[in-house]
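Justification of resources, computational component.

The compute hours requested in this renewal are based largely on the per-chain cost of generating structure records like the one below. Each record pairs the submitted sequence with a full structure-token output. That output is archived, and it is also reused by downstream analysis tasks.
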Amino acid sequence: MRTLVTAARLLSPAGVLLDPLVAMDGERIVGIWSRAERPIGPAATVYDFPGATIAPAFFDLHLHGGAGRDVMEATPESLAAIGDLLARHGTARYLATTVSAPLDATLKAVSGLAKLIAKPETPANSKPCAQPIGIHLEGPFLSHAKRGVQPAEHLLPPDIAIFDRLYEAAEGHVRLMTIAPELPGAVDLIAHATRRGVRVSLGHSDASAEQTLAAIEAGAINTTHTFNGMRPFDHRDPGILGTVLTDDRIYAELICDGVHVSPAAVKLWWKVKGEERAILVTDAISATGMPDGEYTLGGFPVQVANGRAMARGVLAGSVLTLDRAVENFVAFTGASVGQAVRLASANPAKMLGSSTPELANGEPADLIAVDEQGKLLGSIVGGRISH
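The structure output for this chain reads:
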């Protein structure tokens, strides 16, 4: 049975469509028109969002968990809980992100995730659910100097053989890897991973500008949570931060929660990376969507209070959702809703080299409705309303 969605405008590959009418049948979009072309007639269900903008649902490149669960549990139950939470906040796709852990534990986690990515388990009468489309390895090839909350005892020097073990255990579903480019062997591993089709992100790094440029030349294309876990900028020694902010070849993630990066720094990031290379992520952990208390990140305890996740006195991911990141970004920068949504949907897909989420006939019925301030008004994932 068909479901219709309408609002004030719709963002499409062709531009902005005013007074749109989106028809969905099951999990696919089966038609998009203006209401002048085809007025609303009898339908099973109509969702109307007056004054709102309809846009593609979000895509989170950097997510460790939510709803009290961690992606490294790698069980149908954990991913179902996480997927339900994400769908309610406008996210339809994400990369299940690991944290540095004992190698055997990481191998087990990515193996379990690979099976669930290849063949998602969908229980009868399940809720709308965001789906992991790949794995992001955040570690173990990170800098001790800029490890943040990553456990020092589980960090390893870059090693092609270890990477290949992880890649094979993940059955080829590793889509992104974070690495510190200054570590011995890192540039060779970046080139190797790139040849295997894995996108490489620079992060948790104390790299110099020269070391960063060498990594970009080897194939690195992204920056993990820009400003966080990297050498601070200095006007005589710009380091990794000065390089990734000014090099148009590389994308730059940002956690826009007002905790990890100040609004003034968000404006700077937006001005220099711009609409083509800026990406919003959450770095969300199991505590996302939950009350304050103690949770875990990849097995170690994290304390959450007043919007901050801390472990051993260091920020340990976030409790951010992408809808709030978009809303914050609009407030911090004055960017348009269309620009903000792009940073959380099209740009992540482009960076990965995967299909860009579009609202068009035959495409998945994954869409959101937002107001002029970027506030989420409605979320539809897999053709079903979630928020």
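The domain at 2-53+375-385 is CATH 2.30.40.10 (Urease, subunit C; domain 1). The mean pLDDT is 95.
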